[in-house]
Amino acid sequence: MATKQQRLCMNQADGEAGYALNSAVQSAAQSWMKPAIEEAVRGLLNMKSTDVPNSMVIADLGCSAGPNALALVSTAVDAVLHHRQAAQHDQGPLEVRVLLNDLPDNDFNDVAKRLDSFQQSTQSSGLLLTTGIVPGSFYKRLFPNNFLDLIVSSNSLHWTSEVPKELKSNMIPMYDEDEGLRRARPPLVIQAYREQFRKDFTLLLKLRAQELVSGGRMVVSVMGTRDYLCITPWDTIIIPLNDMASRGLISREMLDCFYLPMYGPTDVELREIIQDEGSFEINEMQVHQVVKSLTEPNEQARAMRAVFEPMIVQHFGLSSDSMDELVRTLEKQLTPGSPHHTYLVGDRVFVSASLTRKF
Ligand SMILES: C[S@@+](CC[C@H](N)C(=O)[O-])C[C@H]1O[C@@H](n2cnc3c(N)ncnc32)[C@H](O)[C@@H]1O
Fold this sequence. Notes:
Elements: H1 24-48, E1 55-61, H2 68-86, E2 95-102, H3 108-121, E3 128-135, E4 148-154, H4 165-169, H5 179-184, H6 186-211, E5 212-225, H7 235-246, H8 252-256, H9 267-277, E6 280-289, H10 297-316, H11 320-334, H12 341-344, E7 348-357
Parallel strand pairs: 1-2, 1-4, 2-3, 4-5
Antiparallel strand pairs: 5-7, 6-7
Helix pairs in contact: 1-2, 6-9, 7-11, 10-11
Bound molecules: S-adenosylmethionine (SAM).
The site of S-adenosylmethionine has 22 residues, from helix 1 and strand 2.
């Protein structure tokens, strides 16, 4: 029997449980990327001024929906406008094309409306801004050869192309109820995810190197960790699910075969992968602590729902009431004083990299 494709997308943008209202932490990661995006745009425009630039193509990978979808590309377009206003002489017309990518299940209706308003807002700026939507996996070719000048991406590239096959085939769960097994198995589980991420990120770099012009830039940020043996990015959702399984509210068997396609690398790991692949110079890498005080436990729990609900509903068939119970359980676990609190608010970071496609 063919296995059903895992439904990887955020909750639809609108509504209380939607990604638009529940993505404050991701938005903080985007603001940390602003200086690197501005620097990349300046670099591109200065480089291009020698042969009279007349166009720039910018793409965002894994844009999702809601206000975050356009945040990075608008930072880039603002930087273009700022650079041109500061220029001493008239630089002639510049055409900017903005392309937003995500998986086909994404809420592209929301993205289309935002792109339209964005385009209208730039009409008096002197730029010719055109926009487009590019559905598809960033683990496949998305754009023509030598086409893009700048790639941006936030909070998306830690999603892997699939769950490590060896975990599924050996029926090794992501999280063991048995504490002895849980302590013994993390290196095995994490190693499988580590290898999957290395394979995927290497492929992603190869594909994007073909699509970027020589000297093209890439500024990306992923959810990571300072120490991959301490905390894994899926714990915040697996631990409350485990609590619900212990109370008989969801099936233990179903939990044991629930896998999430994601991995949070350390900055050292990410650097090694980029260097080993070899298409890009690393201009800068940064690590930012996820500031939990940005949001309250209930907001953090709702943010998890916005990200994971479609996958959880698809796998467990949970009702909206059970999803509410999951959010309440996580909220309790994230509250100071809970036995899970220290672990769940552990050393989570965003790792960002500013890269240049080698000439
Ligand atoms: C947490 S959201 C991040 C959205 C936005 N960039 C932000 O910073 O708030 C992650 C997005 O990555 C998308 N995504 C995951 N895997 C993908 C893939 N292989 N190709 C394209 N998009 C993917 C998901 O559908 C989701 O919309």
